[in-house]
Specification:
Helix content: 10-25%
CATH class of the largest domain: Mainly Beta
Shape: globular
Low-confidence stretches: 1-13, 51-64
Strand order of the largest sheet: 3-4-9-5-8-7
Largest sheet: 6 strands, mixed, barrel
Radius of gyration: 21 Å
Number of helices: 7
CATH topology of the largest domain: Cathepsin D, subunit A, domain 1
CATH superfamily of the largest domain: Acid Proteases
Distance between the termini: 28 Å
Number of domains: 2
Strand content: 35-45%
Length: 376
Amino acid sequence: MKWLVLLGLMALSECIVIMPLTKTKTMREVLRERNLLNNFLEEQANRLSDDSASDPKLSTRPLRNALDMAYVGNITIGTPPKEFRVVFDTGSSDLWVPSIKCISPSCHTHITFDHNKSSTFRLTRRPFRILYGSGLMNGVLAYDTVRIGNLVSTDQPFGLSLQQFGFDNVPFDGILGLSYPSLAIPGTIPIFDKLKQQGSISEPVFAFYLSTHKENGSVLMFGGVDHSYYKGKLNWIPVSRTLSWLITVDRISVNGRVIGCEHGCEALVDTGTSLIYGPAKLVTNIQRLIHAMPHGSEYMVSCPVISTLPPVIFTINGIDYSVPAEAYIHKVSNILCLSSFQGADTSKWILGDVFLRLYFSVYDRGNNRIGLAPAV
């Protein structure tokens, strides 16, 4: 019996590919430390308004925000392989990195891809453009071999950035989307779907464990689930629409009082943001309940009151998921602490890393569902 258990564990370890992730300072944190955040937000609002008006063909991702991407990992592209640091993002589906031919200064503070040095590279003349909530990527579609650990996707479509704005201080080179094909640039296939097609993963599943405080310790796993990263059992939540990793939230409450989603609402489970986003009016109500006051573009509370603040409860598929003040309040000085709730022009909620550090998350494409369990 012991040998059977051991063989089972060995088979499990061979099926699951585990990628280490690193927790970094977000671009928002870097700009805040330099007292440049408010100026950046004003400049970006003006620039993005002009860009979207001048090019209606842009693929628009208004809620994708490079300001708040915190967890990064390494992939390689090309033959021989060139390493890039990317955000593994459940809120988008495209892969892109900067080209060596990129004309924007921000490209050359990051690793760039030289297609002339890859024997498996294939270029197209097709534009690849994405307008984010905090920036713009403008480039061209290409194909090459992409490796995530020992997973290999051959002839994988990806974007090469030739011009980009709003990515100057980000701690990553590019973005690797893990959402559904419907969000990808039309006619392309996301890397997870390509790996499924090629039979490279044993199960159409991936999962995230995001460590709470340490720089290291976070992981992304493909092809199965390592149960040592969570407590209890996984609670499965059906995806509300197979367009992205959207689920239905029954209600949001504080101190037993419903403060949002009274009749249910949609939420995106999103590894690509460190915050919790929601409709501006409802988020403002939460800020009042936790005694947060506006401070430029953000909301602050007095640090000594954290222990008195209530948890915010997200009830999902009949189960309460508590987010305590210690999780949604971030210390920026000895006196001022930052609220991690952010209002946006949206009817949806976005459950980012503040939520996902508390709950191990599994993304099951085979059954179109998300599993959540308390993280260890």
